[in-house]
Q: What sequence folds into this?
C-alpha cells in the first residue's frame, strides 16, 4: 500500500465533513476538543498510519484545508 | 514524498467566505488548477458575477473584474474582442446567467465568442437568501416558492446546457456535477476542455456545474450532495451536449 | 460631413479601437460609420444584442486600457445607466455619445435637449458624475470626440458627448484633426497579470468605511475636474444686461437672435456652456453683477435652468424659454428676448 500524509490548514476548516464522508479509508474525523477561529471543530486525522495518499479528501474539500503527499 | 494536492498558483491565500460544504470552493479550485496546468495564469482575465461568488476576485490570483448582475458575458466579450489572445472566463450562478443575464449569455454563445463560461447551478438565489431561480425544480420549496414551485405559477426550469448547445456558435457545452469524487474529476476535465476550446479559437464554451446550497436547501453538506444526485441529476442530465471538432 | 459621422471620425482619430452599440435613431450613423471603417483600419465594431450588453462590452473593452466607445439616444442611454454607474465607479475611461431626442418614454426623434438632467446628475444609481460635452457644430462633433478621450484618460472617467439629433443629422464642412498617437499609461488595466501583481476592477465595497472612502475619493476627483475643466463660450457678454444661457445647437440660434436684438439696442449676450457637467459656474458668477436678468433657452421644459438658478442664488431673476421637438428659429428667440427686455426695462 502506498504511504500517504495529510496536512491540514485547520484555520480554514468549516467542519463540513465532506472529507470525512468521502475518505475511502475512513481515517478522518472532526476534532471535538478544538475550536478554530472560524468557530468550527476542525478536521483531524485519527489513523494517520492508514493514509494511502489518494487525495480524495483534498479533492472534495471546498476550503483548501487539506494538502496531501504520497510516497 | 510527492505532493498530491495543494493550493494552486491561480488562487490567492484568502479564506473563502462561502458557507460550510458549499461547493463553490471546489469549483474555484478546479478552475485554478486547470489554468495552472494550461500555463495561463498570467494570460487569464476572469469576470465574477453578482451572487455568492461576487467576491471571487479576491480568491483568484489573476486579473479579475466584478460585473453587474448577469452582464459578465458582455464584459468578457469586450475584453476578448480587444485582447483576442487572452484566456477570458466568466463565473456565473443560475440567477445571474439564466435569469437576468439570459440575453447576454445566449448572444455570446450565438456569436461564438471565444470565452469560457463556468455556470454554477444550485437551483436558487443563494446570496439573497434562497429565492426561486429559473433553475428551481418543480415542487422545490424556496423563499419565493414557499409552497413548492408550480408550473402554473412559474413555468418550467430552464436547461441552459441544452439550450445553448443548439447555437452554432457554441463549440463546447457540458453539464457536470460536483457531488462525488468521480464527478469532481469529470468536472475538472470539462473545465479544462472548455478553456482549451477557447485557446484553440473554436468558439464559445460553457460548463454547467450542478452544485449544492446546503444553507438555503436546509440540509447538511452531505445530505445536500445526496439531494443533488437524487433530484437535480434526473432533471439536469450530465454529459457533453456539444463538442465541435474542427 | 454629417455630425454623426464627424463624431465617429473624431473618435477614430482619438485612437478609439472599439465601438460597441445598438441601433437607435437618430444616432445609428455612428455605428454604421464604424461598421464600414473599422474592418479596413483594424478596429473592433460589434453590434450588441442590447444597450445593456453594449455598455458592458464598453466596460470590458475600457478595462483593457484601450480607448472604446458607444453611442445611442435617450431611451438607449436610459438602458445603459446601470453600466454607466458601474463604469463611473470603476473609473474606466470611455466615450458615450448621446444623439438625443425628445422624451419621456419613447418620445420622438425630433430635436430635444431633454436628457440634460440624466446626463448631468449622473443618470444611474449612486453618487457620481460623468463629464458631459455639448458640441454646437459638426466641427465640434469631431473635435470634442478627441477632447473627450483625453479627458476620460486623464481623469479615469466616462465622458459623454450630448448633441441634439439635429446636430447628428446636419452636414457641415469639417477640418480633419490629426491622429492622436500619444496615450497615457494605464497600469491599472486588466490585461493578464504577466510580470506583475493581479489587477482587480471592482465596484463592490462591503464595509461602510471603504464605501465612504471610495465616494470621497470620487468626489475629490470631481472637485478637481470642476476646478480645471469647466468650459464655456461667451458672446457679446461684456456689457450684457440680458444674459442668455443656451447650449449645443440652440446656442447658435441664440447668437443670431442676439445680433438681431442688439440692432434694436437691447444689450443681450450669451453664455454657452460647453461642459454641461461640470457646469461652468464661474462664467455665470462673473456676470451676476452686470446682468439684469438671465434667460435660459433650452429645447426642453427647463432643466439647465436649475443649474443657473443654483449659481445665481436669487441675486437676479432667472427666466426660461423652451420648446420641445422643434428647434426654435432666430426670429422666435429674438421675439422672446425683446419681450423680456421690455418687461425688465433693458
A:
Amino acid at each position: 500500500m502506498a504511504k500517504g500524509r495529510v496536512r491540514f490548514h485547520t484555520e480554514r476548516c468549516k467542519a463540513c465533513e465532506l472529507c470525512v464522508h468521502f475518505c475511502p479509508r475512513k481515517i478522518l474525523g472532526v476534532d471535538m476538543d478544538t475550536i478554530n477561529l472560524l468557530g468550527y471543530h476542525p478536521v483531524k486525522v485519527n489513523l494517520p498510519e492508514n493514509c494511502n495518499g489518494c487525495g480524495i479528501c483534498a479533492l472534495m474539500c471546498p476550503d483548501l484545508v487539506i494538502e496531501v503527499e504520497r510516497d | 514524498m510527492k505532493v498530491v494536492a495543494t493550493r494552486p498558483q491561480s488562487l490567492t491565500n484568502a479564506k473563502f467566505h462561502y458557507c460550510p460544504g458549499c461547493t463553490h470552493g471546489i469549483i474555484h479550485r478546479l478552475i485554478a488548477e486547470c489554468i495552472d496546468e494550461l500555463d495561463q495564469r498570467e494570460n487569464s482575465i476572469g469576470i465574477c458575477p453578482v451572487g455568492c461568488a461576487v467576491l471571487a476576485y479576491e480568491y483568484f490570483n489573476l486579473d479579475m473584474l466584478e460585473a453587474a448582475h448577469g452582464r459578465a458575458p458582455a464584459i468578457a466579450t469586450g475584453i476578448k474582442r480587444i485582447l483576442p489572445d487572452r484566456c477570458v472566463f466568466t463565473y456565473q450562478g443560475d440567477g445571474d446567467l439564466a435569469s437576468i443575464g439570459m440575453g447576454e449569455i445566449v448572444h455570446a454563445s450565438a456569436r461564438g465568442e471565444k470565452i469560457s463560461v463556468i455556470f454554477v447551478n444550485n437551483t436558487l438565489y443563494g446570496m439573497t437568501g434562497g429565492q426561486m431561480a429559473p433553475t428551481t425544480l418543480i415542487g422545490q420549496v424556496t423563499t419565493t416558492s414557499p409552497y413548492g414551485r408550480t408550473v402554473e405559477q412559474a413555468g418550467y426550469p430552464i436547461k441552459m446546457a441544452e439550450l445553448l448547445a443548439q447555437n452554432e456558435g457554441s463549440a463546447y457545452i457540458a453539464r457536470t456535477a460536483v457531488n462525488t469524487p468521480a464527478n469532481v474529476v469529470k468536472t475538472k476535465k470539462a473545465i479544462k476542455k472548455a478553456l482549451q476550446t477557447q485557446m484553440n479559437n473554436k468558439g464559445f464554451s460553457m460548463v454547467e456545474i450542478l452544485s449544492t446550497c446546503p444553507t438555503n436547501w436546509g440540509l447538511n453538506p452531505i445530505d445536500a450532495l445526496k439531494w443533488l444526485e437524487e433530484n437535480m441529476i434526473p432533471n439536469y442530465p450530465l454529459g457533453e451536449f456539444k463538442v465541435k471538432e474542427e | 460631413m454629417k455630425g454623426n459621422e464627424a463624431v465617429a471620425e473624431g473618435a477614430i482619430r482619438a485612437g478609439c479601437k472599439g465601438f460597441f452599440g445598438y441601433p437607435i435613431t437618430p444616432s445609428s450613423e455612428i455605428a454604421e460609420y464604424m461598421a464600414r471603417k473599422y474592418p479596413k483600419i483594424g478596429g473592433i465594431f460589434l453590434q450588441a444584442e442590447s444597450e445593456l450588453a453594449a455598455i458592458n462590452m464598453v466596460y470590458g473593452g475600457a478595462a483593457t486600457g484601450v480607448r472604446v466607445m458607444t453611442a445611442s439616444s435617450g431611451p438607449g442611454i436610459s438602458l445603459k445607466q446601470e453600466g454607466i454607474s458601474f463604469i463611473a465607479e470603476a473609473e474606466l475611461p470611455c466615450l458615450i455619445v448621446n444623439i438625443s431626442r425628445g422624451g419621456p418614454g419613447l418620445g420622438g426623434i425630433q430635436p430635444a435637449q431633454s436628457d440634460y438632467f440624466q446626463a448631468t446628475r449622473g443618470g444611474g444609481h449612486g453618487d457620481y458624475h460623468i463629464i458631459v460635452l455639448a458640441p454646437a457644430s459638426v466641427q465640434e462633433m469631431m473635435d470634442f470626440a478627441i477632447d473627450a478621450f483625453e479627458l476620460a484618460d486623464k481623469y479615469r472617467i466616462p465622458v459623454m458627448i450630448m448633441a441634439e439629433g439635429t446636430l447628428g443629422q446636419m452636414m457641415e464642412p469639417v477640418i480633419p484633426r490629426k491622429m492622436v498617437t500619444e496615450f497615457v499609461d494605464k497600469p491599472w488595466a486588466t490585461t493578464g497579470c504577466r510580470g506583475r501583481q493581479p489587477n482587480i476592477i471592482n465596484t463592490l465595497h462591503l464595509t461602510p468605511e471603504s464605501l465612504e472612502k471610495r465616494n470621497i475619493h470620487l468626489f475629490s476627483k470631481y472637485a478637481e475636474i470642476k476646478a480645471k475643466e469647466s468650459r464655456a463660450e461667451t458672446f457679446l457678454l461684456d456689457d450684457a444686461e440680458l444674459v442668455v444661457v443656451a447650449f449645443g445647437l440652440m446656442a447658435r440660434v441664440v447668437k443670431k437672435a442676439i445680433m438681431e436684438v442688439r440692432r434694436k439696442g437691447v444689450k443681450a449676450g450669451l453664455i454657452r456652456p460647453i461642459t454641461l457637467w461640470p457646469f461652468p459656474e464661474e462664467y455665470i458668477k462673473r456676470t451676476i453683477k452686470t446682468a439684469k436678468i438671465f434667460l435660459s433657452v433650452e429645447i426642453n421644459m427647463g432643466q439647465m435652468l436649475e443649474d443657473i438658478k443654483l449659481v445665481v442664488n436669487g441675486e437676479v431673476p432667472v427666466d426660461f424659454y423652451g420648446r420641445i421637438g422643434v428647434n426654435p428659429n432666430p426670429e422666435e428667440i429674438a421675439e422672446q428676448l425683446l419681450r423680456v427686455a421690455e418687461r425688465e426695462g433693458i
Summary: Chain A has a mean pLDDT of 97. Chains A and C do not touch (no CB pair under 8 Å). Residues 42 and 59 of chain A are 17 Å apart (CA to CA).
